[in-house]
Amino acid sequence: MGLGHFGGGVAAARWLARQGASVTVTDLADETDLADSLAELANDPIARFRLGGHLEEDFRGAEMVVVNPAVRPGNPFVQIAREAGARLTSEIELLMEAAPGRIIGVTGSNGKSTTAAMTAAILRAAGRRTWLGGNIGGSLLPRLKQIRPHDWIVLELSSFQLWHLAPSAAMPQIAVVTGCSPNHLDWHDGYQSYVAAKQRILVGQNRDDLAVLNTHDAEVDSWAPLVRGRRLPLPSLSEIPPLLVPGEHNRSNAACAAAAGTAAGCDTLTIRRALKAFRGLPQRLEWFAAVNGRRFYNDSTSTTPHSTIAALESLQEPVWLLAGGRNKGLDLGDLAAAVVRRAQGAAFFGACADTLRSWVAAVGPQFPATATETMDEALSWCWQRSRPGDAVLLAPACASTDQFRNFRARGESFVELVRGLAEQHNR
Questions:
Q1: CA angle 379, 329, 339 (to 5 degrees)
Q2: What is the per-residue pLDDT across 374-414, written as a single tens digit (0 to 9) for each?
Q3: Got the DSSP string for 198-256?
Q4: Helix, strand, or coil here: 322?
Q5: Which of 189-203, 256-270, 273-287 has the highest mean predicted lDDT (pLDDT)?
Q6: Are 180 and 217 contacting, i.e. CB atoms less than 8 angstroms apart?
Q7: Full domain range(s) for residue 170
Q8: Are 161 and 272 contained in the same domain?
Q9: Residue pair 319/390 in contact by the 8 Å Cβ criterion
Q10: How far apart are CA 258 and CA 232, in angstroms?
Q11: Where are the strands (E) in 331-390, listed by range?
């Protein structure tokens, strides 16, 4: 249910079909929208495709429904399947159920991708055979035959993925929580529902499992009573070596990854060496170009106010901010204050542009800001006002789906726009 574009739907359909299941793929999107994913399944024995809408009969007759994480709570077709006695599961649950290796699960409102990648880097530096997947790096279902019992699997787990896990689902043997602040409130039924989804990674563990909680985050630190197994201490930030990735938030991420590495049996010197060499991830505060003395940063993965604030505070140079998109039902007050305090100016684009500009104007009436329709216009506004030595930062604070397929497409579009600037000014 929900083929999507990120690979999890394709991987689940293929994996089940190749094991002999009669697989129906159903999606609200049509053949044109799903052309890339359908092409990947062209040679697989899929029983039928229902595209452009769902049919009740498919859900009434199913023994198992693999639900895409983006499917919202209360979906009527899921309820039909539940009442008909179908097992409800997800791609990530199928993986955790079938994988022979030992699993480290990483979740959090911000920093989970970086922390998961840092953890995998530590394990690899220690000579451990390691697989990175989940919400980062694509599905590992196609790799199951290659995964051995002594391998390590590092999974980034979103609130959507955790919410859809069955009550009986086995949790990762090592759980890492990087932080918790309001996010996806347009999907979850309020903040408490979102928190409960994140806490699922802890309450589903058993007494032999291990947990790493980011003690620098007050919300997560308060979850200590939920830990079923043993809670591992976090190293102090002073114990973290100098990092190539900027920002205090990345030092907290590194502390979480270091604790996870310790839990997996890695020694301190190896952990420090791996963290010092870690170069970051694409589209996460990624410096990718310099044009006429301006440095350009792509942080398209900043889809919450909290993550955009962290990006603003990580850069030392004067910053011109591009932000906007679809608000996820989150409060914008703290973001507006941080923009006025830290940025030289801000250009807001997309569905939330006027709202963001209004919040900023309420905090700093004289602060240079504009609302535009497109990211192209926002970039042009920042470029015209920036000076050599300044930074131009895409850190949207919002979802991308008002104008782009996903955050990756948004970041790629930003990179292409900046390349156009470079060609124009480097002639």
A1: 40
A2: 999 999 999 999 999 999 999 999 999 999 989 999 999 99
A3: HHHHHHT--TT-EEEE-TTSHHHHTTGGG-SSEEEPPPPGGGSPP-SS-SHHHHHHHHH
A4: strand
A5: 256-270
A6: yes
A7: 92-277
A8: yes
A9: yes
A10: 11
A11: 343-349, 369-372
Domain end call among 277, 297, 329:
277
Which of the four pLDDT bands, split at 50, 70 and 90, describes residue 338?
A: very high
Instruction: Return the residue matching tokens 């220690």.
Output: 126
How many helices (H) and strands (E) are present in the chain, helices listed first? Answer: 16, 16
Higher-confidence residue of 181 and 22: namely 22
Cα angle, residue 70 at apex, residues 64 and 76 outer, rounded to 5°? 60
Phi first, then psi, for residue 317 (nearest 5°) are -80, 165
Nearest to 208 by CA among 226, 229, 232: 229
pLDDT for res 16? 97
| pTM > 0.70 | yes
Identify the pLDDT of residue 427: 58
Cα distances (Å, whole numbers) of residue 206 to 102, 173, 201, 263 = 14, 8, 11, 16
Q: Which long-range contacts (CB under 8 A, 24 or more apart) does 236-240 make?
A: 240/275
Q: Are residues 58 and 101 in the same domain?
A: no
CATH code, domain carrying 169: 3.40.1190.10
Per-residue pLDDT of 233-269, as tens digits, reads: 999 999 999 999 988 999 999 999 999 999 999 999 9
End residue of a domain, out of 277, 296, 328: 277
Beta bridge partners of 153: 103, 131
